[in-house]
Specification:
Chain A: One of its GO terms (cellular component) is maltose transport complex. The structure holds two protein chains of two kinds. Chain A is α+β, with helices and mostly antiparallel strands. Chain A has eight helices and 20 strands. Chain B is mostly helical. In chain B, helix 3 crosses helix 14, helix 4 packs antiparallel against helix 5 and helix 4 packs parallel to helix 8. The chains are: A alpha+beta, B mainly alpha.
């Protein structure tokens, strides 16, 4: 199973450049997820791998082959679309076999491969139905089946779960993960949902405005973000950010009225920074009174307390256990100082101790 | 009285009458017949709501009945009668029909009509689809479409006049104003042809006029249908390795079949009724007769109301099944 490699890949629409020279290596059999907010270019990049969008500059390889100028059908890729993109006038079976039929494969072979794919996806009883007679989840399974049947080197998923309801999304997510284990092919998956990214990916590519912000394994991105954008994007609820200033022996954060000890170089003294703290690393200190509880959300096992501090900056704290705050309470905050991330206030890049 | 004032009064009376009718009838229903109060308030509301649609539809049903349904039955009746001197009528049974079927001119009209039916809807739909697909992505596609749509705005008689000029023949030593003869002579024809007098082929010269008009209609509807095809299905087919021709025939056309059927049947109905073009260009001479012009000949030239009505009934019988199918498909399309 070949991987995908991109070398200084650029996409322009006329004079407008939307992808700014991306270098990326996706290994054989790797599950790579592109995440980012809408308009970050993740779908465009995926469509460039598919060949549906031309690559303006740079080189794109699948395995050893240079596919930069190849037609989509010659690249050995298969794509699963957000809107399923099933052919409405064909049965499930015809939908799945269409690609092979177009490439002139003999009928028995098509039958066999369709049967194999429908077994994997448990679609056997629906083979003679038209897409209109299927539910959303079944349609997406057919769409995945259509991709499997073609036996591609690389699977491309363009937000495949966005049109499904929450429950089905979880179910299909598990199914896609299972599929990846079973087939072992290289997969590229586009989503704006960071939960999908965290759970599915071997490698996450965080994109913003046509640039890669950071590439890495899910937990690496969570534990060690390179910049404020990645820190805020990965993790749910999102990381809390507060303005701070480097002083002797630590960082002064006016919002919570604390000076947090941090191992930061003396050269940074007087520097404006942004302090990042994940909700799950914070706990309520009932003795303090620097923060006011605006709202609490109770999910059962955990609840989220929404607090506002002296400078009006909001933050979220995750609470477990029996003793939880209620709205209007005045509380303080406690956390382990080493859990604090620091970012440069201007460049928003991480300041590592 | 000044005609403008007369028109104003007519309008005020007409619209005022409508308002009075709808408002008054509604009031009568709600306040007098089934008032929404008292012990039976709930039942009264239900009943009033059952009657209300019919009340509002009544004027339209009456008008349509008078101007559409009644003439059908009157024509049917006339087709069984013969007009005698002194404004008398005699019942003659199917004699009008048998006489008509025996006429060679009627057979000719039937055959020609079938020929029109086979050629015009097929050619218009195919050309319309072709133009719609070809102009879809062009920057100047909308300009091309507007030009091709323009004949739709020209009346059939106007179009007939334009094409009479196209087919015009002048003596061989004079400059040809008809473009067809000009081309014919330029490419080696020996003398100008009277195109509309060449039996059998002249039918096609007439059909071209209707095709010219209807292509624009087919193009507009089919172009909208093509735009409605989800782009992803086309992209999926591209990745699946289908070439543009396969995408057009195997992905796009099957997805707009119902629209194609609606366009086809709509043009078929227009073709069955074709009259103006034949009337203005050949008047049915040189073996170009069609049913509608035959009917006109019988009704208003020969003043044979019996046979004219019989011809009208034949046209109606031919249109009805297509019309039903057309409405059925159009409704399916809307769902």
């Amino acid at each position: 199973m070949p991987g995908v490699s991109m070398n200084k890949v650029i996409k322009k629409y006329g004079d407008v450049q939307v992808i700014h020279g991306i270098d990326l290596e996706i290994d054989d059999g790797e599950f790579c997820v592109f995440v980012g907010p809408s308009g970050c270019g993740k779908s465009t990049l995926l469509r460039m791998v598919a060949g549906l969008e031309e690559t303006t500059e740079g080189q794109m390889h699948i395995g050893e082959r240079n596919v930069t100028k190849l037609d989509p059908s010659d690249r050995g890729v298969a794509m699963v679309f957000q809107t399923y993109a099933l052919y409405p006038h064909m049965t499930v079976k015809e939908n799945m076999g269409f690609g092979l039929k177009m490439n002139g494969h003999p009928k028995p072979e098509i039958e066999e491969k369709v049967a194999e794919a429908s077994r994997i996806l448990k679609l056997d009883e629906y083979l003679s139905r038209k897409p209109a007679a299927l539910s959303g989840g079944q349609r997406q399974r057919v769409s995945i089946g259509r991709a499997i049947v073609r036996g591609p080197d690389v699977f491309l998923f363009d937000e495949p779960l966005s049109n499904l309801d929450a429950e089905l999304r979880v179910e299909m997510r598990v199914e896609i993960a299972r599929l990846h284990k079973e087939i072992g092919a290289t997969m590229i998956y586009v989503t704006h949902d960071q939960v999908e990214a965290m759970t599915l990916a071997d490698k996450i590519v965080v994109l913003r405005l046509g640039n890669i912000e950071q590439v890495g394994a899910p937990m690496d991105l969570y534990r060690d973000p390179d910049n404020k954008f990645v820190a805020g994007f990965i993790g749910s609820p999102a990381m809390n950010f507060m303005d701070g200033k480097v002083v002797d022996g630590g960082v002064e954060i006016p919002n919570i009225g604390m000076t947090v000890p941090a191992p930061i170089a003396t050269a940074y003294k007087g520097h404006d920074v942004i302090a990042g703290l994940r909700p799950e690393h914070l706990s309520i200190d009932p003795k303090g009174d620097a923060l006011t509880v605006d709202l609490t959300e109770s999910l059962g096992g955990v609840s989220y307390a929404y607090l506002s501090g002296a400078t009006g900056e909001k933050l979220v704290v995750e609470e477990r256990g029996d003793d939880r705050v209620s709205e209007g309470d005045k509380v303080g905050l406690s956390f382990e100082p080493e859990r604090m991330y620091l970012f440069d206030a201007k460049t928003e890049q991480r300041i590592r101790g | 009285m000044n005609p403008a004032i007369q028109a104003m009064i007519t309008m005020i009376v007409g619209i005022g009458g409508c308002i009075v009718y709808f408002y008054g009838a509604n009031l009568l229903l709600d306040k007098v017949l089934f008032p929404a109060k008292g012990p039976n308030a709930g039942r009264n509301i239900n009943r009033a709501n059952m009657i209300r649609p019919w009340l509002f539809l009544l004027p339209a049903i009456l008008a349509l009945g008078l101007y559409l349904a009644y003439p059908v039955f009157a024509t049917l009746r006339l087709s069984f009668l013969e007009r005698l001197p002194g404004n008398e009528y005699a019942f003659v049974g199917f004699e009008n029909y048998t006489k008509m079927f025996a006429e060679p001119k009627f057979t000719e009209a039937m055959i020609n009509n079938v020929l029109w039916l086979m050629v015009v809807p097929a050619a218009s739909t195919a050309l319309g689809l072709l133009v719609a697909q070809l102009t879809d992505r062009l920057p100047w596609g909308n300009v091309a479409k507007s030009i091709i749509f323009m004949p739709m705005a020209i009346s059939f008689v106007g179009a007939a006049v334009i094409f009479k000029l196209v087919y015009e023949a002048r003596p061989v030593d004079v400059a040809q104003i008809g473009i067809l003869n000009h081309l014919y002579l330029t490419f080696g024809g020996d003398e100008p042809q009277q195109w509309l007098t060449i039996p059998f082929w002249n039918n096609f010269f007439l059909m071209i006029v209707l095709i010219w008009i209807q292509t624009g209609f087919a193009m507009v509807i089919l172009s909208a249908a093509l735009r409605g095809i989800p782009e992803e299905t086309v992209e999926a087919a591209i990745i699946d390795g289908a070439n543009p021709v396969q995408i057009f025939f195997k992905i796009k056309i099957p997805q707009i079949t119902s629209t194609i059927v609606v366009v086809w049947t709509t043009i078929t109905i227009a073709t069955l009724k074709v009259f103006d073009i034949v009337f203005a260009m050949t008047n049915g001479q040189w073996e170009t007769q069609v049913l509608a012009n035959y009917m006109y000949d019988k009704l208003f030239r020969a003043h044979d109301w019996g046979m004219g009505s019989a011809a009208a009934m034949i046209i109606m019988l031919m249109v009805t099944p297509i019309l039903v199918w057309n409405v059925y498909n159009a409704r399916k399309e809307m769902r």
